[in-house]
Amino acid sequence: MSDKVQRIVQLADSLFNASERTNNENLWDELSEFMLNNQWKFNRQQSVSATDISSLMSTNAGTKKTRRLYDSTALQAVQDLSAAFQGTLTNPATTWSKMRFNDDALNNDSDSGLWLEKVNDMMHNEFNESNFDTEIAKGYQSLVSMANMPIFHEERETKAGEHDGVRFTSLHLSQVVWMEDKEGIVDSLYRKFTMRAKQAVEKWGDAVPHEIMKVVEQEPNKEFQFLHAIFPRKDSEVKLNELGLAPGKNRPWASIYISIEGLKMVEEGGYYEMPVYVARWSMLSGELYGRGPSHLALPDVRTLNRLKQRGLEAMDLQVRPPILANERDVFGQLDLRPGGISIVKDVNGVKEFVSQARADILEFSTQDLIQSIKSMFFLDKIQPLSNLDKKERMSQLEVTKRLEEMQSVLGPVLSRLNSELLQPLVIRQFKIMLRAGVLPEMPDMVKERGLDLEIVFVNQLARSQQVQDVSSIQQWVQNLAGLAQLDPTVIDNIDSDGIARHTAKILGVPEVAVANQDEIEQTRAARQQAQQQQQALESANMAADAAAKAGNLGE
Asked: Which residue, of 127, 395, 475, 480, has the greatest Cβ tally within 10 A?
């Protein structure tokens, strides 16, 4: 075992066995049971190291996940809020982000604008052709139920090293630990996982330990543990060429795979950008892991679950009450099955026990708890009660109102999602495709001025955040139009071009549909010239008419 492998394994051990991590695993285990029970167990009876993680990797495959679950309100709330995130933030049916130049000269250049429009389309096409939609859906469920959402974004390559799209993986929280940089952004991640012997040999060949090679023929499905470490390299180890490229071992982020069997490094590579995005719902100072609505709702969820259990017990007492019998009045056992025969000495000595249990009195309490849980997951804001039972499609006004309400309560977490997930994801996707050479040739003007881009989110929720600007502008223009009847010079306050460009940006109008400034000036110059020519022609015609009339008068 090399010193590097030993240091990485020891660091991973310390992170997995930290008290904060253990406390969160116990809490995640409880949250997953009541809110996302398709997740496997987190809880550990005792601390284990990264070299003995088999107990952490058990998924309890095929076992029942709802043994103690009597109510599905929280499960449904998690699904509804997760679906709302996906439908409004990263809806696969729409283009939910785009890039723009920070240089207005490039935005006004038709060739540059058309090139960037094609790039935006190609990026979203690659998202749609990958497994992004399925994995981001899992990630949103993890964010809502566990308040943490790690997503792995890697490039797929053919055997010839050619670009073959991208692949996403929603990582389970039981597999990963992370560290932050000085700005609170996750820059190091350690992932523990299992692979079958056959898979490991196919991926790494002779680099796997002898112990794995020895069993691959007889037991190809035998599982072994591996550790994947991703962390920033020292500046002295990063060696990029003039094009910003480098071999895997000299890239800014290290990628090291270690076989726990034999403690051997089986692969050392690297990434140009951090390939894992860790989004947290909200953070407490000094903590690594997020907290979310599920943490607040857990007491009500547990209480509701217990009330439902007690209600079922009360109903059972009423439907199948206990039987009271005098001693020695019953021969053998009472047969309580329909049509069953029981032999008794005195039938009057056998009677039902009348229970005072009432399931109906629990109904009021359970309804209050259900509404409380839905409110903690913001369903009363994003799914108004007036629309829950409607079968018809919502109107545009209802959709807009729903988005505004969602934005008003989810503003902080949406800002964190943008900074920790969506922005770095779009940036990395652009750089992956740029390095792979699959993007169109850059216009000369872009090459001269350089790539200085900004990311603009044009999903429904982002537009609802900015639609107030459009409404304010419209109302202001209408007010000025009224004042113009008293003083026409007030119209001089309106910058029509500025309003048109700003509105197009907010509404996500494609760049190719908006004329650039040069085209606008040319159009206006041509219009002005045509007007001048028309005025000159009209003046000439008027002069000719006047001369003709003067001649007629002279005769």
From this structure: 127
pLDDT value at residue 511: 65
Helix axes 132-146, 293-319, angle to 10 degrees: 80
- Cα–Cα distance for residue pair 155/168, rounded to 1 Å: 9
Residue 100 identity: R
Q: What is the pLDDT of residue 385?
A: 38
Of residues 180, 175, 204, the one with CA closest to residue 190: 175
**Closest CA relative to residue 251, chosen from 264, 267, 237, 266:** 237
DSSP character at residue 270:
E
| Angle, in degrees to the nearest 10, between helices 73-89 and 293-319 | 140
- Distance between CA atoms of 158 and 160, rounded to whole angstroms? 5
Name the β-bridge partners of 166. 155
**CA torsion, ordered 532, 533, 537, 543, to nearest 10 deg:** 50
- The token duo for 165 is 């799209």
Neighbour-count burial of 547, counting CB atoms closer than 10 A to its CB (0-12 exposed, 13-18 middle, 19+ buried): exposed
Q: Spell out the alpha helix ranges (H) of 320-377.
A: 362-376
336-358 pLDDT, tens per residue? 676 667 767 677 777 776 666 66
Distance CA 59, CA 42 (A): 9
d(CA 406, CA 378): 8
Q: In the beta sheet, which residues pair with residue 148?
A: 280
Q: What Cα–Cα distance (Å) separates residue 177 from each residue in 12, 96, 186, 275?
A: 8, 30, 10, 15
What tokens were used for 554? 């002279």
Residue type, position 45, single letter: Q
Q: Which amino acid is at 93?
A: A
Q: What is the dihedral of CA 166, 167, 168, 172, to 10 degrees?
A: -150
pLDDT digits (tens, 9 = 90+) for 399-448: 666 666 666 677 788 889 999 999 999 999 999 999 999 999 999 999 99
Residue 380 — pLDDT band, cuts 50, 70, 90? confident
Concatenating the DSSP letter of every residue in 481-501 gives HHHTTT-GGGGGG--HHHHHH
Would you say 34 and 298 are in contact if contact means Cβ atoms under 8 Å apart?
yes
Largest Cα–Cα distance in the chain? 149
- pLDDT higher at 58 or 280: 280
Cα–Cα distance list, 512 to 66, 97, 233 (Å):
53, 16, 41
How confident is the prediction for the chain on average, in pLDDT? 83
Classify residue 304 as exposed, middle or buried by CB count within 10 Å of its CB (0-12, 13-18, 19+): buried
In tens, the pLDDT along 96-118 reads 998 999 998 898 888 998 999 99
Length of the chain in residues, anyone? 555
C-alpha–C-alpha distance, residues 550 and 554, integer Å: 6
pLDDT in the model for residue 468: 63
CA of 289: how far to CAs of 8, 120, 423, in Å? 21, 33, 20
Whole-angstrom Cα distance, residue 199 to residue 24? 32
Instruction: Check: CB of residue 230 under 8 Å from CB of residue 153.
Output: no
The residue ranges of every structural domain in the chain are 3-69+148-280, 296-371
